[in-house]
From TrEMBL:
The lineage of its organism: Bacteria, Pseudomonadati, Pseudomonadota, Alphaproteobacteria, Sphingomonadales. This is UPF0145 protein E5222_13925. NCBIfam families: PRK02877.1. Belongs to the UPF0145 family. Pfam families: YbjQ_1. Gene3D superfamilies: Hypothetical protein apc22750. Chain B. HAMAP family: UPF0145. Transmembrane segments: none annotated. It comes from Alteraurantiacibacter aquimixticola.
């Protein structure tokens, strides 16, 4: 299934628009990861554990988009927008939201 942030797919005319679809994933921050990320913030460097979790959450949100698209009879998602939000008490959770338009090409 083609998924893209662009509104069209070059060389693939859209035959039918099937509606706006979304996928959301909320992940909790692990206390030990927070401690090690805090140390990284002090001494510098990247937080590999946070980057890994963020990547997994993004992949899951896009997978939800693809599943919703397929359930509507589509075979591509165009105009994908990804949003990241810190939520919960003291920013203890991260939400990744993906939205786009399910289409048939």
């Amino acid at each position: 299934m083609i998924v893209t942030t662009t509104p069209t797919i070059e060389g693939k005319p859209i035959q039918d628009y099937l509606g706006v679809i979304t996928g959301e994933v909320i992940v909790g921050a692990n206390v030990f990861r927070d401690i090690f990320a805090g140390i990284r913030d002090i001494v510098g460097g990247r937080s590999g554990s946070y980057e890994r979790i963020l990547g997994e959450a993004r992949e899951q949100a896009i997978a939800e988009l693809q599943a919703e698209c397929a359930s509507r009879g589509g075979n591509a998602v165009v105009g994908i927008d990804l949003d990241y939000e810190v939520i919960g008490a003291n920013g203890s959770m991260l939400m990744v939201s993906a939205s786009g338009t399910a289409v048939k090409i």
